[in-house]
Amino acid sequence: MHHSLIILGSGYTAKFLLPLALHRYAHVFATSRDPDRHLSHVSLDQRIRFDLAQPETWQAIPPSADVLWCFPAVPIELVQQFADAASLQTRRLVVLGSTSAYDVSTSIEYPPSWVDETAPVDLSKHRVKGEELLRNNYGAIVLRVSGIYGHGRNPIEWIRTGRVNRSRKYVNLIHVEDLVSFCLAALMHADPSGIYNVSDGNPRTWMEICHMVEQRWDIRSSDSPTAGSTGKRVLNKRMCELLKLDGTGLRHGDLFETLELMQRNSLNEATPSR
User: Is residue 215 part of a domain?
Assistant: First the structure.
């Protein structure tokens, strides 16, 4: 068992990760700018107040702990100052980024070509600059994460409420349970300064997803008012290899099967027990 882990910026993903991390770490801490308000589900001795914009809170970060960085790495000046102050170059550091880092905006190919970790990134985006600073200067392992879904984040509800509409745009998704499994695998096994795409490896168009949801649950959607981008198709080969090294694999590789399961679970939760 490893000694300690600190989750910087504990939001949706951290709620699922923290209990699993306790099987691998003797101590796990979660941070928030307002821990009493946002970390009520975490025991008091695991809560830490941390705000990148308030350097006086930096000293609360335990020394030598592994670090999972879960918020955008901006502004870059404070990112660098904190990284130096916390000696992040001496720790295992995993940073959650986004597949939106890839610079594919000019592509007109359809379907779009597959994107692996060697694809160029858009350094005009401030968070991408911050991630690359941490990767190149401090050995951070950067996870380029697809759209996260799971309990409380259901794509069916996105369609029902009109948050997304039918379009030919490809979307890449990852279930939060697979994301947290991979975060732990990366902390244990990933190469320093490595890049890993985090996706279920089965990109689909919103047209496909909306069609399936309408057929199965009679939840209708409308066409997207604009043509928009074609999206991207993200390869997850490196992710799957690392999960295998960790003795596990993807649990939710098929979006449609998982949506069926989520809807059944939702129905069961809504049905009062006798």
Answer: yes
Q: Which is nearest to 182 in space by CA: 270, 272, 242?
A: 242
Which range has the worst mean pLDDT, 33-37, 106-110, 142-146, 236-240?
106-110
Q: How far apart are CA 156 and CA 215, in angstroms?
A: 12
How distant, in Å, are the alpha carbons of 46, 69, 87 from that of 94?
A: 19, 6, 14
The residue segments making up the domain with residue 180 are 72-266
d(CA 186, CA 243) in angstroms, rounded, equals: 8
pLDDT, tens digit, for every residue of 10-60? Answer: 999 999 999 999 999 999 999 999 999 999 999 999 999 999 999 999 999
Phi-psi region of 201 (alpha: psi -120 to 50; beta: other; left: phi over 0): left
Residue 116 lies in a domain: yes
Say how far apart CA 266 and CA 125 lie, in whole Å: 38
In angstroms, the Cα distances linking 91 to 4, 83, 188 are 11, 10, 12
Give the pLDDT confidence of 48-101 residue by residue, as tens digits. Answer: 999 999 999 999 999 999 999 999 999 999 999 999 999 999 999 999 999 999
CA distance 56 to 52: 9
Q: How many domains does the chain have?
A: 1
3-state secondary structure (DSSP) of residue 218:
coil
